[in-house]
Please model this.
Amino acid sequence: MSEIFEEIKEAVIDGDEDLAGELAQKVLDENINPVEAVQQGFIKGIEEIGNSWKAGEAFLPDVMMAADAMKAGLAVLEPSIAELGGGDDDTGKIVLGTVEGDIHDIGKNIVGALLTAAGFKVYDIGIDQKAENFLAKAEEVGAQIIATSALLTTTMNAQKELIEYLEEKNLRSKYKVLVGGGPTSQTWADEIKADGWAETADEAVELCKKLIS
Amino acid sequence: MLPKFSILTPEQVQTVHDHTMKIMEEIGLEFSYEPALEVFRGKGLKVEGQRVYFKRDFVEEMVKKAPSQFTLHARNPENNLICGGENIIYMPGYGAPFIHEADGARRSATMADYDNFVKLAGASKNMHMTGGNVVEPTDVNDSIRHLKMMYSHIVNSDKSYMGSASGFEKAQDSIELAAILFGGKDVIKEKPAIICLVNSVTPLKYDDRMLGALMAYAEAGQAVVIAALVMAGSTGPATLAGALAVQNAEVLAGITLAQCINPGTPVVYGSTSAITDMATGSLAIGNPECALFTSASAQLARFYGVPCRGGGGLTDSKIADAQAGYESMMTLMAASTTGINFVLHSAGILQFYMAMSFEKFMVDDEMAGMLLRYLQGIDFSEEKFALDVIAEVGPGGHFLTQKHTRKNHKVELRRAELSDKQSYDGWGKEHLDTNQRAHKKWQEVVASYEPPALEPQIRKALDEFIEKRTKELSK
Model:
């Protein structure tokens, strides 16, 4: 059994999405415990790539492709894990997107991948998203965090509008709202009463860990 | 002037062009602005949804309509600039939301910072224009920010400047203000007075805001820089050849649109392509790859017969330190020696365009002065050989007391303005490094700067227009 866990770990490290999915299917077919496959295989792989990245030995394509491979495998295993009653209940859920009027998404995608790699469940709703879409997704999945990205000084105001929208709906205290993107800053986050700001993707991961713990 | 050097062979230029045409014909580009799609449909191009498939012959024909050079008019005609040919135009950085102080502290930029950068550029011997959007004045409401910015350029200097590119309406306001300054829209249609910066959204897209501005400027006969910033490794291939082809496709698509709207619209081929920091995903601009993109772009623009924008005093450093200096010199020198005509971001930029620094501005201004001297090259006219003076001094003498020396050193030997050339003891009296000297100097320049006078009736007309628009836009 430890052999397949090792293969899963390697598939994640190689960023091989197809193989990760196939191995996850094999776990189900052979009645191997899916929770163990996640813990001994997928998470081990993503941890290793994460450590190499922190050490400056792996780079973004390595980390982002590993996160994609892990996602592909988890998608296959999740229904069985849910059946077993083991749950994703304790995983932090984050709704992530680029605000209305802004179509830049590289930074958001990097943050999404690193959060996934850190074990968060990330719901990326894409670019140019209205406040109501952020909230609808967060309600649907039961997220704890809403994270918004803006690259332009002309669109960052939409981050403020999202917070006002949540206040309007009396749901502000239900969610931690994070802001990020080139022109944003801690001062900006304070000004619009966001719950946090991070300049880089790895700082964003640390921030989410702190907020959810 | 020094001859411009080329980094690509003619065969390499041709192969970039051929691959670019394949991208434009087979992959196509997306335009999220209906009026632009209408223009392309009207020209018989295949449009599917928002994706436009260009034909090679059509692109080549349209690009040929763009002028190889044009004059950018300033309110003081002595400051008119020819954009294209052998000429080079330096100006401040563009679009940064933050100011980094001399000690590295970061804060949001304000309108007062904006005025100060315009004044520094106005006072500089090395900045040919006062630029545009020199910082994002975040203390001014976004709806009227463009009016305040234009006004600052107009009243604080008589050099030419850039207009707003934030959508059709703000572009129109910029054109109206220029029309008031120059005596009517028909005047500026003949004599382009403003130029704006239109950026693609890499890879292979244009958004409505930028296309709106492009169409407003093209219709009014004003000049447009059409620029692409490919981040090799993230928004474009990690290989420079592929990234260059993506950039080229985007810029040519923009130039084609401008020429469809108004044939002969003055355009500038723009490149700010650089690389991705593969550990963090950040843009990284102070590097040899960016210098290569800049140099290759100058050559591509020559191939297409249009002026070129690229490079600048570019750095990823957060403070005016040694890294800021050596990175900026590499990218500004590459732009200057390979034939870039329009150098946005010549002065002030820190941290991959995120911040402006007054100290860095002064450092870059010094570099710009050094490079302008370098570009002049060596004057080989007969009297410059000074054979009679060499004969008079003879072996073992010195030239310090020759009239020829007294007359010529001021012309031939550029005197540094910021760099320290003193003895150790001379330097030791104040013990200031470059950053500290720059900090002192920019404040002195701003304090002693007298903006050139503006005719009172023109100023009144500008004030009235701004007051009216401010009311309308603040509703």
